[in-house]
Amino acid sequence: MPSITRDEVAHLARLARIELTEDELDHLAPQLEQIIGLVAQVSEVAAEDIPPTSHALPITNVMRPDVVVACLTPEQALSGAPAAEEQRFRVPRILSEEA
User: Fold this and answer.
1) What is d(CA 24, CA 31) in angstroms, rounded to the nearest whole number?
2) I need a surface site. Which of 3, 22, 30, 60 has the fewest CB within 10 A?
3) Is this structure's pTM higher than 0.85?
4) Alpha-carbon distances of 62 from 17, 68, 76, 86, rounded to whole Å
């Protein structure tokens, strides 16, 4: 596999708009090369007969049945509101009409 050059790291940094010092470029080039090598190893192991998974173990969603319970009336819900209008909370305007 071809190695990642310092110039390629600098090019990637420019594309990502990341400012890197000379020392950071020298430090990151071998690290990126190692990361790409490890990704290549994983790609070699991946087989078409193995389905992709998001978790190593099966996950079961724990669901409870919906139960209808009594809820607040609009009057009860708005009883502690500082201001209400047409069975809604009244809040101060924060955007102009033009927005």
Assistant:
1) 11
2) 60
3) no
4) 44, 19, 32, 39
Cβ atoms of residues 50 and 43 within 8 Å? no
Q: How many CB atoms lie within 10 A of CB 9?
A: 21
* Terminal-residue alpha carbon distance, the chain: 54
Burial pattern 68-79, b for ≥16 Cβ within 10 A else e, equals eeeeeeeeeebe
CA 82 – CA 67 distance, rounded (Å)? 32
Tens-digit pLDDT profile for residues 4-62: 899 999 999 999 999 999 999 999 999 999 999 998 888 787 677 777 777 878 888 88
Angle of CA points 86, 91, 97, to nearest 5°: 95
Look-up: residue for tokens 């010092």? 21
